[in-house]
């Protein structure tokens, strides 16, 4: 009686740690960061005060800032502080593929921005990609729990160890820093991780029900 060779168990895409195409993911992360630098350079060269296109809290005329705020920064030092987190977190957040990354990023971008618009201090204009960075970090920190992935949890512990100081940005403190942007970015990242895990479980259940 012959036996069929054992087939290797395929890797669960939901539990990937690195992007399926690391080179493409790196190019996208670098490209997005380059856009941030080009926008800041344009702001310096034309002296047009592009930062006024940021989020104006509870001002209907400034609601469009939800779209533009992550691309704007209050100077080079602000952009430099966001560069490494944006590069690292955006790259790792592409583990589920480009389509999932776009959906996760859009969730953080829009919901995080709306949270700032609703709760930010009156008269303030909020700019910067730190809300995105906090959102991606939160997504990476909790996705392993939702996906029941030991590997992703280990990565989350490493990221938390390296960037644990960022967590202070979730609390009120320096009046020049938008803790609202950080907090709502992080909450949106947690929501995005839950939605991704839920969609993945539904897809797995549907594939079994044949």
From TrEMBL:
<feature type="domain" description="Peptidase S54 rhomboid">
    <location>
        <begin position="66"/>
        <end position="198"/>
    </location>
</feature>
<keyword id="KW-0645">Protease</keyword>
<feature type="transmembrane region" description="Helical">
    <location>
        <begin position="153"/>
        <end position="171"/>
    </location>
</feature>
<keyword id="KW-0472">Membrane</keyword>
<keyword id="KW-0812">Transmembrane</keyword>
<comment type="similarity">
    <text>Belongs to the peptidase S54 family.</text>
</comment>
<dbReference type="Pfam" id="PF01694">
    <property type="entry name" value="Rhomboid"/>
</dbReference>
<feature type="transmembrane region" description="Helical">
    <location>
        <begin position="66"/>
        <end position="89"/>
    </location>
</feature>
<feature type="transmembrane region" description="Helical">
    <location>
        <begin position="177"/>
        <end position="197"/>
    </location>
</feature>
<feature type="transmembrane region" description="Helical">
    <location>
        <begin position="124"/>
        <end position="146"/>
    </location>
</feature>
<dbReference type="GO" id="GO:0016020">
    <property type="term" value="C:membrane"/>
</dbReference>
<keyword id="KW-1133">Transmembrane helix</keyword>
<dbReference type="InterPro" id="IPR035952">
    <property type="entry name" value="Rhomboid-like_sf"/>
</dbReference>
<protein>
    <submittedName>
        <fullName>Membrane associated serine protease, rhomboid family</fullName>
    </submittedName>
</protein>
<keyword id="KW-0378">Hydrolase</keyword>
<dbReference type="InterPro" id="IPR022764">
    <property type="entry name" value="Peptidase_S54_rhomboid_dom"/>
</dbReference>
<feature type="transmembrane region" description="Helical">
    <location>
        <begin position="24"/>
        <end position="46"/>
    </location>
</feature>
<dbReference type="GO" id="GO:0004252">
    <property type="term" value="F:serine-type endopeptidase activity"/>
</dbReference>
<dbReference type="GO" id="GO:0006508">
    <property type="term" value="P:proteolysis"/>
</dbReference>
């Amino acid at each position: 009686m012959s036996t069929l060779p054992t087939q290797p168990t395929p890797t669960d895409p939901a539990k990937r740690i690195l992007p399926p195409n690391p080179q493409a993911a790196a190019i996208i992360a670098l490209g997005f960061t380059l856009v941030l630098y080009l926008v800041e350079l344009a702001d310096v060269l034309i002296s047009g005060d592009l930062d006024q296109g940021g989020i104006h809290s509870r001002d209907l005329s400034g609601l469009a800032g939800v779209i533009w705020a992550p691309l704007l920064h209050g100077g080079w030092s602000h952009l430099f502080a966001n560069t490494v987190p944006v590069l690292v977190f955006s790259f790792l957040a592409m583990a589920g593929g480009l389509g999932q990354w776009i959906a996760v990023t859009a969730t953080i971008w829009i919901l995080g921005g709306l949270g700032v618009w609703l709760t930010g201090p009156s008269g303030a204009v909020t700019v910067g990609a730190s809300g995105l960075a906090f959102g991606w970090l939160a997504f990476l920190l909790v996705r392993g729990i939702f996906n029941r992935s030991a590997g992703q949890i280990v990565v989350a512990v490493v990221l938390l160890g390296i960037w644990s100081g960022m967590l202070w940005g979730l609390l009120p403190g320096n009046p020049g820093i938008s803790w609202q942007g950080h907090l709502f970015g992080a909450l949106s990242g947690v929501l995005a991780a839950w939605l991704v895990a839920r969609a993945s479980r539904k897809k797995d259940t549907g594939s079994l029900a044949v």
